[in-house]
Amino acid sequence: MKKYDAIMIGFGKGSKTLAAEMAKHGKHVAMIEKSNQMYGGTCINEGCIPSKSLIIQADKNGYTKAVENKEVLVTKLRKKNFDKLDQLENVDVYTATAQFVSDHEVHIKNEELDEVLYGEMIFINTGSEPNIPNIKGIHDTKHVYTSAELMKLTELPKRLAIIGGGYIGLEFSSMYARYGSKVTVFEHGERLVKREDKDIADVIQKVLESQGVAFEFLSSVEAFENDGEQVVVSYKDASGNNHRLTVDGVLLAAGRHANTKALALDQAGVKVDARGNVIVNEHLQTNVPHIYAMGDVKGGLQFTYISLDDYRIVKDHLFGEGKRTTENRGNIAYSVFISPTFSRVGLSEQEALKAAHNIKIAKMPAAAIPRANVISQPNGLLKAVIDADTEQVLGCVLFCAESEEMINFVALAMDQKLPYQAIRDHIFTHPTMSEALNDLFSNV
Length: 444
Fold this sequence. Notes:
Layout: E1 2-9, H1 13-24, E2 29-33, H2 42-45, H3 48-57, H4 63-86, E3 91-95, E4 97-100, E5 105-109, E6 114-124, E7 128-130, E8 144-145, H5 147-150, E9 159-163, H6 167-179, E10 182-187, H7 198-210, E11 214-217, E12 220-227, E13 230-236, E14 242-247, E15 249-252, E16 256-258, H8 265-268, E17 291-293, H9 304-319, E18 334-336, E19 342-346, H10 349-354, E20 359-365, H11 370-374, E21 381-387, E22 393-399, H12 403-415, H13 420-424, H14 436-442
Parallel strand pairs: 1-2, 1-6, 2-3, 6-17, 8-15, 9-10, 9-15, 10-11
Antiparallel strand pairs: 4-5, 5-6, 7-16, 12-13, 13-14, 18-19, 19-22, 20-21, 21-22
């Protein structure tokens, strides 16, 4: 039996970075990834990188060319990630399935390999996978896709149905509408993104409708079936009336869940919650102290930069002072790359009120930003939530062009507990989108 100081299950952002760090400290590491198409993790191969490549190209290239360019980029990054670890003397990369045999032993298997590895420490970084809703015909009907499968199509679906009006559904609805698809989003709720304030959700809906996206709210998708090469979506509308919509493809955007089913975690005694997420403490240790979990597999926010920060927490726990934890990593911003980009950090207005904060609200339309008009992207809305007692920023929503960059400045100000006036009076370069923060926080 080969013995390692550490076994990494899953080639994700957290584990690949930690593997290199541990090798630098002289540790012998096994990296196990079940697919040669997943070196580097979900973000590079199936998530942020391919989707953002297609989004950015939507106004520049035709769909087929954009997919070709995306595949070249992903292939390049995948190889770069593999080579970065494979060239390290202290790291062995195995392309194989992994399953726990005990709390120190992992069985790995592929067409040529069938053996058990021993690890003093084991790190789980297997990510998440799409939820597949219980809809009649979903497993037998052709042209029903997950997001990763849809992005591999070289021919644009002329008509696309999206099941789910959450962040993934909205991002893909905007992207495919901009390429020319006629997109219909089916949402079982009465409005989009319930986690956001209604005024923000309404503006998002209005912008997407201007791009040609149609919405079916309070709808219930009952069945899928093929009519030749097309898909017939049977559904009930808000009034309970039956309808059939014929499309060229269906995207399932009903959320994601932890990818743990095949790991045999019970063999190691590792506990999971009711949703299948690996339960961890503030240092990312499971109930078995030498087994850790990082990234999507432990639940919570599903972003690659969370997996990277998980690495920082584990690194500090193993090689530092152990002061960095999940409890003190600060405010986490996120962006949804519809057009324009929707970005947020901290509390929404409804969340702040629920938490009994005494608040002040600042708003401004994106059309009031000079730079937004210069780049012909005037759509959107900016909103900030201020604690009226401390004058600190509780939360901020930026639904405007380049908000994915702007939001980081606000997050930093919040982490430093600066009063909103510090942002209001900061000197930004001109003409930029960031200088809109001066005007936004002048409206408090």
